[in-house]
Amino acid sequence: MKLHVKGITEGERIPDKFAFGVYSDEDHMSFGPNRNPDLSWSDAPDGTKSYVVLMFDPDVPSKADDVNQEGKVVPKDLPRVDFFHWLLVDIPGDITRVPEAADSDGVIPKGKEPGPGTIGLRGVNTFTHFLAGNPDMAGTYGGYDGPCPPWNDELMHHYHFEVYALDVPSLGLSGPFEGDAVREAMKGHVLDSARVTGTYTLNPDLM
């Protein structure tokens, strides 16, 4: 399979228009345009009945004690975990594109509804947990929400956009499902996949 993410070049910085958070001289971070990029794919194998789209960051600190704290840094050698930014499942087999801004166009405080969307079924991204302690932002975040790494992180973050071709029309997921549930449900059903990786940071020393 081949995956094309319009506006994102393999291994290079993701444009601000796709980010949840953008750099700010005054406050380190301000809300970004938060538009999902245009994804298109081709050369799926015979027998493909549906697709899954995932976007995740494998470089998220496993401990958040020093995240976005003045006078502190998140060391690059801290163990890292996956943070899911986008989960779309049960995309019909005759659809091979998600247009820009079809699943997100702006930061929505308290999140977008998971469940049926304009294309496929939206899962719950990890902002749901990350923002749970913020009374102005806490909620359930469905669909796409873009990069917003800690502004004091010494590590450049990588964002993997992935598409999977599956041999089933549906993964049978319902309710507020998350990334690990998608990965588990896909086991044994993946015919092929493709990936494009971009980078992003809010740390001015890395920019």
UniProtKB/TrEMBL annotation:
Signal peptide: none annotated. SUPFAM superfamilies: PEBP-like. It comes from the Bacteria. Transmembrane segments: none annotated. InterPro entries: PEBP (IPR008914), PEBP-like_sf (IPR036610), YbhB_YbcL/LppC-like (IPR005247). Pfam families: PBP (PF01161). NCBIfam families: YbhB/YbcL family Raf kinase inhibitor-like protein. This is Phospholipid-binding protein. It comes from Tamilnaduibacter salinus.
